[in-house]
Amino acid sequence: MTNYISLLKENDLKATIQRTSILASIDDAGHINIDDIYDNVKKQYPTLSLATIYKNIIVMQENNVIVEVPMNGEKSKYELKKDEHMHLICQECGHIKDTKITSETKEALIIENFQLKSSQINLFGLCEKCQSKA
């Protein structure tokens, strides 16, 4: 289990109950959209508003605690910030699988006269489960 209080403090943020609850929800799911975060957190803290969730998501994104994963035709999902990796996103069921960025992938990302600082690679297709249904 991740120490959410330390994670927030390391990134110059106050460790509030709202933020630690949001982080726990994201961590439990791996990748989760804001509506599902709200549903999870509201069970514990019924008075928490959706606006508070949005506000904290934005602040934690800006401070590199969480990362937004854009989805085709759906609401974005969020994950805890971790080492660089690619997302294999199933267009059928929405499942997201993290996969490592290899040295070959890094070589392919070398762009002339451009110094890459970070990247987010999202590959869309069909997961193994959905391929077997087709």
UniProtKB/TrEMBL annotation:
GO biological process, one term: negative regulation of DNA-templated transcription
Keyword annotations from UniProtKB, A to Z: DNA-binding, Iron, Metal-binding, Repressor, Transcription, Transcription regulation, Zinc
Obligatory cofactor(s): Mn(2+); Fe(2+); Zn(2+)
Function: Acts as a global negative controlling element, employing Fe(2+) as a cofactor to bind the operator of the repressed genes.
Positions of Fe cation binding: 104
Taxonomic path: Bacteria, Pseudomonadati, Campylobacterota, Epsilonproteobacteria, Campylobacterales
Organism expressing this protein natively: uncultured Sulfurovum sp
Protein name, entry field: Peroxide stress regulator Ferric uptake regulation protein Fe2+/Zn2+ uptake regulation proteins
GO molecular function, one term: DNA-binding transcription factor activity
Binding site for Zn(2+): 90, 93, 127, 130
Pfam families reported for this sequence: FUR
Cofactor comment: Binds 1 Mn(2+) or Fe(2+) ion per subunit.
Top-rank taxon: Bacteria
Family named by the database record: Belongs to the Fur family.
